[in-house]
Amino acid sequence: MVDAFCATWKLVDSVNFDDYMKALGVGFATRQVGNVTKPTVIISQDGDKVVVKTQSTFRNTELSAKLGEEFDETTPDDRHVKSTFTMDGDKFVQTQKWDGKETKFVREIKDGKMVMVRRMTLFKIYE
């Protein structure tokens, strides 16, 4: 379950984050700040809710929801999305949906470190 992720995690490395932000449409100035920010992520449980706090010099956020329960989120780059926390085996997944787009944050523990992969999907529908 989520227990394995309940800890304080400090970012030590980031690969291709600028490309991810570009795909989201994040502006140049915000991307520059995002590329140099080294946030601390604190994951905990409060009863049946998962709490994810992100602390940085840029912005602090706190998300709290039950697994599988959709909630409203305003992202650090000011997107308004519908988010859901789920477990996929031993992976802790956060899915964000907005304007026909979807991105997933897939977190897993490897060698005592939390590794997060972000994936973005764009949907196009034709008639």
Q: What is the topological layout?
A:
Blueprint: E1 7-10, H1 17-24, H2 28-36, E2 40-46, E3 49-55, E4 61-66, E5 71-74, E6 80-88, E7 91-98, E8 101-110, E9 113-122
Antiparallel strand pairs: 1-2, 2-3, 3-4, 5-6, 6-7, 7-8, 8-9
Helix pairs in contact: 1-2
Protein name: Cellular retinoic acid-binding protein 1
Family: Belongs to the calycin superfamily. Fatty-acid binding protein (FABP) family.
Function: Cytosolic CRABPs may regulate the access of retinoic acid to the nuclear retinoic acid receptors.
Give an account of the 3D structure.
Belongs to the calycin superfamily. Fatty-acid binding protein (FABP) family. It holds the Pfam family Lipocalin. Residues 7-24 form the Cytosolic fatty-acid binding proteins domain. This protein is mainly beta and 127 residues long. It has a single domain (2-122), classed as Lipocalin. Helix content is 13%, strand content 51%. The protein has two helices and nine strands. Strands 5-6-7-8-9 form a five-stranded antiparallel beta sheet, with helices on one face. Strands 1-2-3-4 form a four-stranded antiparallel beta sheet, with no helix packed on it. The protein is globular. The termini are far apart. The model has no long low-confidence stretch (mean pLDDT 90).
